[in-house]
Amino acid sequence: MMLRQDSPVRETSLPAQVYSLTGLTGTHIAADFFTERKAAAMKEQKIRLLIVDDDREIGSILHDFLSKLYECTAVNSAADALAALAGESFDLIMSDISMPQMSGLEMMPHIVTLAPESVVVMISGQRMIESAIAAMRAGAFDYITKPFELAQVDAVVRRALDHREQLAGLRSRVTRRDAEKQRLLHALDNHDFVVYYQPQVEIQSRKIIGAEALVRWEDRERGMLLPADFIPLAEDTGLIVPIGASVLRTACEQARQWHDLGLADFCVAVNVSPKQLQEENFLKTVAQILDDAGLGPEFLEIEVTETSLMQNPEVGIKTLTRLREMGVKIAIDDFGTGYSSLGYLKRLPIDSVKLDASFVKDATSDPDDAALVMAIITLAHNLRLKVIAEGIETEDQLAFLRLLRCDRGQGYFFGRPAMSDEMTSAHSKNHHKRDVDFGNKPVVKEISAAGNLTRAA
Ligand code: C2E
Ligand code: MG
Ligand code: MG
After folding, report:
1. Most buried by CB count within 10 Å: which residue of 51, 112, 336, 399?
2. Residue pLDDT, tens place only, 377-432
């Protein structure tokens, strides 16, 4: 990281012994003391400047002045400058534009090759403004004209170094992003994306009726990553399209396997991102995957968020309409967290809304949330939509939702997202014994005829 020179000198923090030893007022001593310390710090950070001027006097003035803050090397010809650049790296190159043999302008393409990350400031003669502009076109960041004030030199150098720092930050962000994109691609090739399933329970009958597919990235170095860690970048880079298709394929194949195991009406819900929804081939992809898996479309539910629909409502609504025509079910995910009006619900070609976990969380303690949950369920039912409550964590929440005749529920109370085999055993136990038992972590021990749940210890 580069140190910046613009923090004011703080005399107040001068150690007492500096005053007592000198017996002076302290002001100048303090300024010198801190300037020196700052200069030392700058040197530690090794901000390196190369000064190139065939006028030895100017070269030496610049060197003496800038050496207070930076590590400077001064040379007197373009040839010496290029030799130095071939062997060392510099953060900033300050060069005279007109030199015999090779001008600063002629030197620019070599600098760009030898030191692409350096920033260049040209020193031009007063009447050489056109050349200075040409130098900037060739890639120099700024120029100063002779004769110059040292304060001006200071300001230009600082500006140029700030610019370089910003560029370096940008470059490293781009590099990091590229590297992460490569990782995503590699993970896709390597089948490192795995699909977990969270049970969805019919609240009144207390049966597991399906599962939501939730993607995870099992990274060899970093362990298991959650969607929040990689979906935004996948969205950004467009890689969500192949990743999403792979999740959809896995989930549909899994649902088909569950059917083959005798869980005949088991449904699978798959999250679909805005990019996928807007993608030209999305409908074909869904149809092909259902066909390949041999899964009836009525067993697939596509989840989209309100915000993703709002990005391009026309295309989104058209795609959802076609999906429904195919027989696929549509749910609005995280319902209530978007900014859209409730009125638009009736225009949407959907089957259900997923009541966001944030409403469920406080529904049993906050009357406002309770009122909202009630209103949403009533409104959805009046529009002949089903309601799936997300994030059910407690028995009280479940009881409240049951009272409001909420249709389906999902949450840690029933089971956390788990691998498909845990889901399989959970479902078969539930199917045969009416116990909801998720893998080796039974959550609900018993469900009475009245629908009361006894939690496992
Ligand atoms: P979502 O679709 O709303 O999924 C529900 C999230 O809530 C999941 O987080 C789930 O693990 C978590 N959850 C479930 N029950 C509870 C509970 O009782 N309490 C709490 N606090 N949380 C609960 P997860 O798996 O981290 O997924 C986060 C989001 O990532 C999902 O939200 C979904 O929007 C997105 N996502 C997941 N898989 C995919 C995918 O395959 N494609 C796309 N495009 N997005 C996905
Ligand atoms: Mg979802
Ligand atoms: Mg949700």
Report:
1. 51
2. 999 999 999 999 999 999 999 999 999 999 999 999 999 999 988 877 766 665 54
Tokens of 284: 């074909």
Q: How far is the CA of 312 from the centre of ligand 1 (A)?
A: 23
H or E segment to which residue 375 belongs: helix 367-382
Q: Is 135 helix (H, G, I), strand (E, B) or coil?
A: helix
**CA of 410, closest atom in ligand 1:** 15
CB of residue 271 inside a 6 A radius of ligand 1: yes
Q: Is 385 left (phi over 0), alpha (psi -120 to 50) or beta?
A: beta
pLDDT for 43: 53
pLDDT digits (tens, 9 = 90+) for 331-378: 999 998 876 667 778 889 999 999 999 999 999 999 999 999 999 999
CB 417 near ligand 1, within 6 Å: yes
The reported pTM is 0.71
| 3-state SS assignment for residue 91 | coil
Q: Which domains does the chain have, with CATH numbers?
A: 16-170 (3.40.50.2300), 191-454 (3.20.20.450)
224 lines ligand 1 (CB under 6 A): no
d(CA 430, CA 9): 72
Hey, which residues does 200 pair with through a beta bridge? 210
**Alpha helices (runs of H) in 261-366, residue ranges in sequence order:** 274-278, 282-293, 306-311, 313-326, 357-362
Q: Is 161 exposed, middle or buried (0-12, 13-18, 19+ CB in 10 A)?
A: buried
The CB of 73 under 6 Å from ligand 1? The reply is: no
Tell the residue nearest (CA) to atom 3 of ligand 1.
334
Q: What is the pLDDT of residues 134-177, one digit of tens each?
A: 878 888 999 888 888 899 999 999 999 999 999 988 888 888 88
The DSSP element (H or E) to which 333 belongs, if any, is strand 329-335
